[in-house]
Amino acid sequence: MGDQIEKKLIMNRFPGLIALALLVGTASAGTASAAEWPYNEKADAAADVRQALKSAQANHRKVLLVFGANWCKDCRDLDAAMHGSSARLIEGKFEVVKIDVGNFNKNLSLVEHYGDPIKKGIPAVVELSADDQVIYATKGGELADARKMGEQGIYDFLSAKLGAASASVSGGQHLIPMSRARFWGW
Fold first, then answer.
1. How confident is the model over 40-95, as pLDDT tens digits?
2. Does residue 123 have a cis peptide bond before it, meaning omega lies within 30 degrees of 0?
3. d(Cα 23, Cα 9) in Å, to the nearest integer?
4. How far is CA 111 from each of CA 1, 130, 164, rounded to the nearest angstrom?
5. What string of DSSP letters covers 26-41?
6. Are 115 and 139 spatial neighbours (Cβ–Cβ below 8 Å)?
7. CATH class of 45-184
8. N or C: which end of the chain has fewer CB within 10 A?
9. Torsion sign over Cα 73, 46, 129, 115
10. Are 68 and 98 in contact (CB under 8 A)?
11. At 65, is the secondary structure helix, strand, or coil?
């Protein structure tokens, strides 16, 4: 009779243990996938840009701002491409800052400061010199169909635009001045 009571206790606890294990497994999976999102929704984007500019000055690099949101499939596809075939276009040349725009309601002071690159859609990119001058910015939603462009299309676009912008700067064209001193408080 004692064995039957013990079995009953174990059987009554068993579903609870399974439920607990499933709950812990689901929570862990949720945490893992949240860590994979490209945009840190809690970041201080203005501070991140200031830090990237300082680092770019010290390391003789440029800054690449990537405006987007985690809910945006095109933004996630651009991010995947930037870590894939397009990585060699960026590594060692740019300090990259990913700026979360939420539902077009976050970090709008940065959006405005850099000429509203998200006006026609996200993701959007802005290439900056180390002294906060805009070299190139998407203005017409050029990357808003990143998922349709595919990794090769994204590579081709970034290669042409970032490379062409750099060539035009070194070719003597003027950079677009921004009122960075007032914006950053320098």
1. 999 999 999 999 999 999 999 999 999 999 999 999 999 999 999 899 999 999 99
2. yes
3. 22
4. 73, 18, 23
5. HHHHHHHHHHT-SS-T
6. yes
7. alpha beta
8. N
9. positive
10. yes
11. strand
